[in-house]
Amino acid sequence: MPYRAISPERLPELLRRMPKAELHMHIEGSLEPELLFAMGQRNGVPLAYPSVEALRQAYVFDNLQSFLDIYHAGTTVLKTEQDFFDMTCAYLERAQADNVVHTEIFFDTQTHTGHGLSTETVINGLYRACEEAPARYGLSASLILCFLRHLSEREAFECLEQALPLRDKLVGIGLASSEVGHPPEKFARVFARARELGFRLVAHAGEEAPPAYIWSALDVLKVERIDHGVQAIHDAALMQRLVAERMPLTVCPLSNLKLRVFPTLEQHTLKRMLDAGIVATVNSDDPAYFGGYINENFTQTFAALGMTGQHAYQLARNSFDASFIGEARRKQYVERLDAVFETFV
Ligand code: ADE
Ligand code: ZN
Q1: Which helix (H) or strand (E) segment is 105 a member of?
Q2: Rounded distance, CA 173 to CA 171, Å?
Q3: Range 65-85 average pLDDT
Q4: pLDDT tens across 23-33, in order?
Q5: Confidence band for 1, pLDDT divided at 50, 70 and 90
Q6: What is the four-CA torsion angle of 11, 12, 15, 18, rounded to 10 degrees?
Q7: CA-CA distance, 230 to 301, in Å (whole number)?
Q8: Which pLDDT value is given to residue 2?
Q9: Which pLDDT tens digit goes with each residue over 212-245?
Q10: What's the rounded mean pLDDT across residues 178-207?
Q11: Which label site among 153, 206, 312, 341 has the fewest CB atoms less than 10 Å from its CB?
């Protein structure tokens, strides 16, 4: 494999320069403390922290739930369509700097409708930024609405109904929030409905919960990608299936570190999964909270695990293969990827 020989000193530059797609990033988790404070002020929403620095210092988590509590508090500053637009533009600018050429952005409408906002306010603000992304930031962006799994099936159905008039602004449906105790089966019927409506389907599974959640995301929800999925490593039959079906996993190493899914980055299983033939990708999840955007995820994980140029190529290639872009654009992006790698051999 020619790319395995790329020297380790040149890897960080290659990782930064290679074109890539980001497939697992919650837009509410990209809200940096500075913008969060500015929005709180302009919208008259008081915050429990006296300063940007104090807020950032509170970003120490024991597990997924301890993060979700702070993340949810942060979303209370979002009030207007312009807020959703501004938040998305800030992310897109960062993504462009990391050579992201395509992104599929998660958002949770229910968080915001729970604060009294309308579905239109949320989706129209996000969508306008996505629409302007090619001209402003040189990248394409689409939207995936995630149901909150700690809420009921009925509430997920309501959320889907409210989004239907804006259906053309969304590419897919996902499932996020507190995983343990809220298995995929709880959302079997609403995912079946979303599938009938023609949405692409993804779900968080096997972030903290056991491999059984991944099996049922595949068999019951019939998803096309698994978000996280790192617990699959404990189930040999599942690993075989993921490889055989080329089922993509959107892995988020710094998130796993900060939420203590793995005690250290050196113990992360990304390299083992790739070497086993899993179609893994690297993503930032909630970059404002977990200490880095996508390139930081790449460079830190490669340094910790001693990964090679071949892994870099495979991860970038997987990100395009696993994306929901059409075949013609996928091919163009892969050509751009190949061209960058050729300059490094
Ligand atoms: N919502 C935002 N980030 C999440 C994560 N890592 N897992 C589940 N739900 C989330
Ligand atoms: Zn996530």
Answers
A1: strand 100-107
A2: 7
A3: 97
A4: 999 999 999 99
A5: low
A6: -90
A7: 14
A8: 82
A9: 999 999 999 999 999 999 999 999 999 999 999 9
A10: 98
A11: 153
Count the alpha carbons within 13 Å of 264 in the hemisphere toward its beta carbon. Answer: 5
* CATH fold of the domain at 22-342: TIM Barrel (3.20.20)
Mean pLDDT of all residues in the chain? Answer: 98
In the predicted model, is pLDDT for residue 257 greater than 90? yes
Pocket of ligand 1 (CB under 6 A): 26, 29, 64, 71, 176-177, 204, 207, 255, 285-286
Structure tokens given for 53? 């620095």
Predicted pLDDT of residue 123: 99
3-state secondary structure 114-142: CCCCCHHHHHHHHHHHHHHHHHHHCCEEE
Of 26, 150, 207, 261, best ligand 1 pocket probe by most atoms within 8 Å of the beta carbon? 26
For residue 54, the number of C-alpha atoms closer than 13 Å in the C-beta half-sphere is: 6
- Of 200, 185, 268, nearest to 228 by C-alpha is 268
Q: Which of 22, 207, 208, 296 is catalytic?
A: 207
Cβ pair 146, 155 in contact under 8 A: no
- Ligand nearest the Cα of residue 202 is 2
Residue whose C-alpha is closest to residue 216's, from 196, 235, 197: 235
Instruction: Specify the residue with its C-alpha closest to ligand 1, atom 8.
Output: 177
Q: Note if the pTM is more than 0.90.
A: yes
